[in-house]
Amino acid sequence: MDATEFRKRGKEMVDYIADYIEKIEERQVYPDVEPGYLRALIPEFAPETPERFEDILKDVERIIMPGVTHWHSPYFFAYFPTANSFPALLGDMLSGGIGCIGFSWASSPACTELETVMLDWLGKMINLPPQFLAGKDGEGGGVIQGTASEATLVAMLAARTKAIRHIQLDNENLTQGEIIGRLVAYTSDQVSTLFPALLVPRMRWIFGNVLNFLKAAGAIKLFQRGERATNDLLGNDINHLECFPICHCAIGKPYRGYADSFNFNPHKWLLVNFDCSTMWVKKRLDLTCAFKIDPVYLKSHLCFILQHWQIPLGRRFRSLKMWFVFRMYGVSGLQEYIRKHVRLAHEFKDLVLQDDRFEICADVILGLVCFRLKGSNELNEVLLKNINDARKIHLVPCHLRGKFVLRFAICARTVESSHIQFAWKNITTIASVLLKTQKQSTD
Amino acid sequence: MDATEFRKRGKEMVDYIADYIEKIEERQVYPDVEPGYLRALIPEFAPETPERFEDILKDVERIIMPGVTHWHSPYFFAYFPTANSFPALLGDMLSGGIGCIGFSWASSPACTELETVMLDWLGKMINLPPQFLAGKDGEGGGVIQGTASEATLVAMLAARTKAIRHIQLDNENLTQGEIIGRLVAYTSDQVSTLFPALLVPRMRWIFGNVLNFLKAAGAIKLFQRGERATNDLLGNDINHLECFPICHCAIGKPYRGYADSFNFNPHKWLLVNFDCSTMWVKKRLDLTCAFKIDPVYLKSHLCFILQHWQIPLGRRFRSLKMWFVFRMYGVSGLQEYIRKHVRLAHEFKDLVLQDDRFEICADVILGLVCFRLKGSNELNEVLLKNINDARKIHLVPCHLRGKFVLRFAICARTVESSHIQFAWKNITTIASVLLKTQKQSTD
């Protein structure tokens, strides 16, 4: 395919994507396929000779789409929101077209520099303490990681390296291995990644909610900052639940009032498509020294070498999509978007509260409503199964204090009040049938 | 931005990318900017209100492009090739448009299933032993990791988990920490990642070339397989240099004739844009058990849960770009592409050999030529600096057995014989001036 054909096919793909998103409501939110469905539809071997683009695009509808869970359908209320905005798609296209690998400054200066500036922009938007910003001559700064798991691993590595060096100052005879065996890290029992345990074998799990964890870890001052920060960006709708990612910051620094690093995922709720997990550090040397000790590098304040901030060597030009999103939405557009989602969650909560067969299982603060039928876990498991089997909306469950709970997460960029009303009507209709059947069987 | 505007802007972006790639020769391959150039061109804060797309696209030329190192210029011979093909761009656009997060089968069945089948396609293309394939009921299978660093880390984690469990069978009293302190891993001194050392503190570095390392690690049978595999795909041009990534496979399994895992990067030389690092395992339970022990999951052969194969939880629909590339090039198209690059490297090597002021410093087998002026390291450092300062072509150096060496890597998809001839003329002209100046200063 040459550039001329790419002009044609690229434009067809733009229309295909626009059609997909414009008409996504018409697609069933959760697919009907069974495990292994796709293998039967695809040849066993790659073709020896080139195939035509038309045939591939036809196969997208025939083979791929029947197996897609449509995360951006306004009837998708499962898992968590994941970003998908048009400006981010455009930025990502450009990133692919430039196709540079920005591991060092010289390998593509714009890639390193735009990322550093975009992390400053975002850090200011969420009111991070100025020590976390790079500025012209700061000691801190931010980086885009692929995911929060990677950010956590990197933060843990930096904390471990620093702890080892500190301990070795007073205990020259201790080996690195001996010190690692004696390090203890604290984390919440609510984290979804086990990676900290790779680096520090002795983990202590703090049970209970995030706030308790942060108190236990002595990180409350960090937490307060996180809270204030999101408040400033998002209005007054935010509290500690959204600050969950800052747990990562506190690991390795228990009993100290301030975090050394901060991480959250714009690729969830901030309209920047996956992957874009932003991480800031107060002292970037803590991080880069964990990866490489290079005296020449240490002397350079100007050249960020982002490969020393992360696990991979290679890195895409991901800051372009942040730049496109921040400029095309503006801070006010981002605030409006988050506020709309929070309003819709409250609208759903109010519907639940008006039906005394149901109960709300956790405070509704942001975009998530945890609810259930008053009654047994089994009843709620059947309710969820019936809702998902009906394929009108899609939900996933969680367990809260031993109770099986349905999670209703406001996810899609295009979700409106009408979808919330439809979802609730769907849930209550299915619940009514279920309760009636159950009553009949017990009568 | 709504779908209507996205149709317009998306098509403009397609044209912008096509223009960029069609006319990339006209751009200076390496930029003139100094560290910190970009901050001065961008506001200190994100805009409060939305900006226009036209202004952003203008700023791409004004702010971004002056700082881009053009990896896809046919005058770029630095680092290594990185994939950038039109079919991959189209596949990636679609991946962004669908925007699903495929961590589990249910979170988007097509995402998991296409990836598994594409890894089987590619595994067959490179003639991997059938144990590495998933098939309908195999115990192996493949996964897309972001980079080889992540694949290495995951393979090391699986190997470590397996070793710990094995040792604990006979030594119930040993803790995990005690066992980790006694594990030893072997790796080549030529690897570019330090991550194995995170998991096994006692590393042994094998000095010398990859073949020696593989022999030392007892992995020679794996290596032979890798060699055969790439031969089959690529003709007879390939030998062990390209099999470097398989070092990863042997780590954790010294003195055993067969590798448990295999990893290489289609995002380098196989026209699938970054990120796409493919990794296969013979027993996927070795891998998934290292991440999660879930008896229900272990019973399921059908549902791959790819989050248990990797560090991140989230994952994009990256197999789409493999599917597009394999189908639009066909196996024959991929072979032709690799063979062209290898031919061009030999063309450059022959030019070097015809000039007795120069020497070739390593066998030329694939797409890389290591060469230098006969003479001191200082002389060659100045030569490289003068070449890069002239900005006509871009090269980076390496050190081989104490010698400062210039690396000439065939990189761009569009590079042709004329660019090789131009590059050599450029190098020899600069060398002649340098040698003349040097002679004058010593006369």
Low-confidence stretches of chain A: 213-257, 293-302
- How does the helix and strand content of chain A classify structurally? alpha+beta
**Quick check: average pLDDT of chain A?**
83
Distance between the termini of chain A: 69 Å
Oligomer: homodimer
Helix amount of chain A: 40-55%
Shape of chain A: globular
What fraction of residues of chain A sit in β-strands? 5-15%
Care to count the β-strands of chain A? 9
* Succession of helices and strands of chain A: HHHHEHHEHEHHHEHEHHHEEHEEH
Looking across the biggest beta sheet of chain A, what order are the strands in? 6-7-9-8
Spatial extent as radius of gyration of chain A: 24 Å
Largest interface: A-B, 132 and 132 residues
Number of helices of chain A: 16
Largest sheet of chain A: 4 strands, antiparallel
